[in-house]
Design brief:
Number of helices: 9
Helix content: 55-70%
Largest sheet: 2 strands, antiparallel
Shape: elongated
Order of helices and strands: HHHHHHHEEEEHH
Oligomer: single chain
Number of strands: 4
């Protein structure tokens, strides 16, 4: 609903701008003997309403265009700032609920097993490329790709267990898709902590994804979508600003 209101508002502004543009051209033509049409056009392109003011101070469009401009800029600034706030919120959420060391522990286990037991043909050597710093790619990748689900706290609490081997911190029960031609691939994971507070009562959701689901990740994805919607609204207003200068 909010998006429809924004689009209708912008459509009204654009239609009004185009209609007022015709009025402006008529005014410039009438005043051509006294005013410079070129100067009026340049002024109008620099600031909506300036050309009309130059041609005819009594013209209604002289005062309407600046009002539209202010409204469009206000909408652009508001939604852009809201988008930044939402972006900061989902980054803080990830910082609180995602651990790189957990992700790396799962990666190392997969690589070790693929090199010693499963024929992966080197597939996993360059498969995991998660940034080690808080870059834009990092925050995008942990929500976008299943292969980075292992770092979410709920996933690790359910699918990882302490390993009795002092040389190995964690153990996992991977589901392998065995392929003699292309090499084996990890298709999922089995829960090792069925008493996890994240798992109890949500077994069906986690099991249906074969160990590729995280409730934290799902919430994170929705937060990113909300931020993108706010940025989209800001972009709509920027289009209106451009149209108002034509």
């Amino acid at each position: 609903m909010n998006k429809k209101i924004i689009l209708l508002t912008l459509l009204f502004c654009i239609i009004f701008s185009l209609a007022a543009q015709e009025i402006k051209n008529d005014i410039i033509d009438v005043k051509y003997s006294k005013k410079s049409a070129r100067k009026a056009m340049i002024l109008s392109s620099l600031f909506p309403g300036a050309g009309q003011f130059y041609a005819d101070k009594s013209n209604l469009a002289t005062y309407i265009f600046p009002i539209i401009e202010i409204g469009l800029w206000a909408g652009y600034i508001y939604y852009n700032n809201e988008g930044k706030n939402a972006e900061s919120d989902y980054e803080d959420y990830a910082d609180l609920h995602y651990r790189r060391e957990y992700q790396h522990a799962a990666e190392d286990d997969i690589k070790m097993l693929s090199n010693t037991i499963h024929n992966d043909n080197g597939f996993y050597d360059e498969h995991f490329l998660l940034d080690d710093s808080d870059t834009q790619h990092f925050y995008e990748d942990i929500g976008k790709y299943d292969k980075y689900v292992y770092g979410w706290l709920d996933w690790f609490d359910i699918y990882a267990a302490a390993n009795p081997d002092p040389d190995i911190d964690w153990t996992f029960e991977w589901i392998w898709d065995e392929d003699d031609i292309d090499g084996d691939r990890v298709m999922g994971s089995l829960p090792l902590n069925e008493e996890s507070a994240y798992y109890v009562g949500n077994e069906e959701v986690y099991n249906s994804a074969n160990g590729r689901y995280s409730s934290y990740r799902q919430e994170y994805i929705e937060m990113r979508k909300d931020a993108e919607k706010l940025y989209d609204s800001g972009r709509y207003f920027s289009f209106g600003i451009v149209a108002n200068h034509i």
